[in-house]
Amino acid sequence: MKRIISLLILLLLVLGTFTNVAAAEDAVEVQVTSVETMEEAEPMMLSMEDAVRIATENSREMWKIDDAIAQVKEARKDAKNAKDLAELIMGMSLPEIQAVFGPEFDVTSNQVERILAKNNYYIIYADTQQEQLEKSREVLLAGIEIETKSLYYNVLLAEKSIEINKINLSKAEEQLRVVNLKFNNGSATKAEVLNAEMAVQKAKTELDSAMDDYNIAELNLLNKLQLPFDTKLTLTDKEFTYVPTEEINLTEAIEQAKAERPEILTAENNLELQKIETHAYTAYYTSNLRQHKAAKEKLKDAELNVPQAYKDIELDVRKSYLNLIKAERALINMEKTLELAKEAARINQLLYDNGMATNLDVLEANAGLAQAEIGRYQLLVAYNISKLMFDKSNIFGSIATSPQTSESAEF
Fold first, then answer.
1. What structural domains does the chain harbor?
2. What mean pLDDT do residues 399-410 have?
């Protein structure tokens, strides 16, 4: 009986050892699998809209504008307090003021500021600053979208360049193979072989350059999205769109820009504020004093700035439209060039097959075709970027705007 018990205990110990070893092997296998999974992480699938969203979420400028809007809201509260205080002081007699604020209180000091506060100058100033900051937020959103999509297009262009250069290299290698066969048969010269070898080397160089351009374009996009530089991307929006300019209504675009551009809002807000400021200064200072004259001159400038802003906006939209027309014209011309390059490559290959052209003619025609195809995609990207700029010309343009924050207001 004791021997049986001893054997059972020994058997349990052996089974336990096997179980522990198996568990350890499983743990090692799981760990190895996890490492392999980390090493073989799949590329990040990225659409153009996702890229814009990520760039917007990570924009520090957006955070700053949101903070500035919050500061302006606080400043408005100070402006309201300043108005209440000004109304209180200006509605009291001198003995009452001295009784409340003390005999050392100087009624004449900061009198212009009190007049401005009483006439809602600082409240309106805070409100206009908030409007301009919110409009600047829209401008920033448009700018982020344009920049991100441009970087996205650049990666797509680099991908296309790699694809086209690989095809061109394959054609050059095939031409070299054929020329070597002919040289071995005595029907081709050493010069033809050298030309084919140089064409292969040139095609390899162009392919290497295209790969380098892709790596740079991908890094620029990752940097804009604030993603790790070792992140591998797979862009899901592969198509390059083309919307003819004949479908665009320039008049509507100009009117929309005049209604929505921040420059108009800034000019009109400045005019409203200047009217109040001029009223306060001309009421306090006599007409022969410098402050009185300066206030009236500033009002005249503010009045002239409004129609000038409308004119500048129209000019900006029209220039954006002409840039789009220019990009479209270049694209159409390149389309025709590409057709000619395809036909030239076909004919030269046909002539070479029939002994009526040299291998150099074929190689040059194929290289010209590759350059034309890449050039077409480059101009297609340029057109799409110009189209983005025009589409956003109602809110975003070349005229610089510098919105003020609440820190510039003094209450």
1. 43-403 (1.20.1600.10)
2. 42
